[in-house]
Amino acid sequence: MTLRAALRGATRHADAWLASLAHRPVRPGLSAAEVLARLDGPFPAAPSDPVAVIDALVEAVGGGLTATGSPRFFGYVVGGTLPAALAADLLAVVWDQNAALASLSPAASAVEQIAGRWVRQALGLPATASVGFTTGTQMAHVTALAAARHRVLAEVGWDVGADGLTGAPPVRVLAGADRHTTVDAALRLLGFGSRGIHTVAGDGRGRMCPDALRATLDTLAATDTPTRTVGARRVPTIVIAQAGEINTGAVDPLGQICALGHAHGAWVHVDGAFGLWAATSGSARRRALVEGAADADSWATDGHKWLNVPYDCGIAIVADRAAHRRAMVAPADYFPPDPGGALDPVDWTPEFSRRARTFAVYAALRSLGQDGLRDLVDRCCELAGHAASRLAGLPGVRVLNATPGPAGHGVVVPLNQVLLRVEAPGGEGDRLTRAVTAAVTAGGDAYLTGTVWQGRAAMRLSVSNWSTTRAEVDLAVDVIAAAVGTARR
């Protein structure tokens, strides 16, 4: 009965939290230090009543929670949580399945296979590709690039799984100048190091330039030493492209990058944390942004951004199933084979023990269907375009990633990101931009995040929540306009 009472208490608190999202301040009211002061103390010597523990925890941390599920949250690229996904994730906690092995949880294994197939279908990726569900895009990069490392070294006669990297032929990595920091982190974790990345110039809007990639590949090929060769390959090479630059939403010309990379024998990986979902759009313009994505060798994306499933959820997709599995598999004598012949989820990610996060992915995709997923992506993009058009009309405000829209239709942005800045003479733009960002977030009516774009302060409004409407976007724009006016006085 104690367990049931604690669960009922938690449910009451959960209901109260969800009911508050429409009106509570989006920003947290307490700092981490303040929450620590409320909770900290000696490790208790005696047990405590579970219901009392939950009540005290909620009381202590409530002011330190950010309302990321609010329709007025526009920070980072954080989605909300779809109702079906939230309910399924709660059940995943109650069911408490270790999703590593099909023999340990046949249900989790089966749902993971279905969810992986639906994700591939939604993103227009090869039906034969393998899928692993990770904590986020960071670990999805690690997973996919581990597969890349395995294959490109195997092609020059080196077994990295058995022999490691000591003495291995060097692996050349090329990535765009505007790549996300998780790419560098993944490369460090895999032993490549960030100093060895060959940075390819961009076009000033966050896209890798194909001509710069071609020139870099040609220049490097001219300096290759033919110590180990297999076919046309001299130096194992990985090219990393991007679908959805974190500030501008720009998408690299993926088809051209894949063609150039493959012409030089490279493995092409796509960082598509949120931008890959443009493939589901009903807009031909947005779908065209990710044209050619299916030609890559691996992809990384998130479920907890545009798909609006709870944290945490990343997805690694690899065209070469054999390389993916060889890079991840870690057999043990006590792992019984699944009698139905299903492949174990542990074979596709670096984690042994792992929560059954795909129940939420399945529920999200099942509840949306193809039409609902299309509408979710398009609605977020259209709301971002609406925000950009209104913001571009404010005196002294510049939308940095906007281009003119059709006649009489304001401006457009590539996807769901709006990057803006308060312009001012004499170097005051940085100070004003930071002041406006801080004022908007401190007010609690909307939540934006600051950033730096091309060496200058900027702020970003990201529309990623299924529950956001034009009313919340208009409120955010009004709050920004008021903050700009105050900062200029």
Q: Please write the string of helix (H) and strand (E) elements.
A: HHHHHEHHEHEHEHEHEEHHEEEEHEEH
Indicate the percent of residues in helices. Answer: 40-55%
Please give the radius of gyration in angstroms. Answer: 24 Å
CATH class of the largest domain: Alpha Beta
Dominant shape: globular
According to DSSP, the number of beta strands is 13
Q: List segments where confidence is low: pLDDT < 50 over at least 5 consecutive residues.
A: 227-233
Largest sheet: 7 strands, mixed
Give the spatial strand order of the biggest sheet: 1-7-6-5-4-2-3
Distance between the termini: 61 Å
CATH superfamily of the largest domain: Type I PLP-dependent aspartate aminotransferase-like (Major domain)
What is the architecture of the largest domain at the second tier of CATH?
A: 3-Layer(aba) Sandwich
Structural class of the helix and strand makeup? alpha/beta
Cofactor: pyridoxal 5'-phosphate
Family: Belongs to the group II decarboxylase family.
Pfam families: Pyridoxal_deC (PF00282)
Protein name: Pyridoxal-dependent decarboxylase
Can you give a write-up of this model?
Helices cover 42% and strands 12% of the residues. The protein has 489 residues and is α/β, with parallel strands linked by helices. It has three domains: 2-65; 88-364, 3-Layer(aba) Sandwich (Aspartate Aminotransferase, domain 2), CATH 3.40.640; 373-488, Alpha-Beta Complex (Aspartate Aminotransferase, domain 1). Helix 9 (210-222) packs parallel to helix 10 and helix 13 (358-392) crosses helix 15. The radius of gyration is 24 Å and the shape is globular. Mean pLDDT is 95; it is low at 227-233. Belongs to the group II decarboxylase family. Its cofactor is pyridoxal 5'-phosphate.
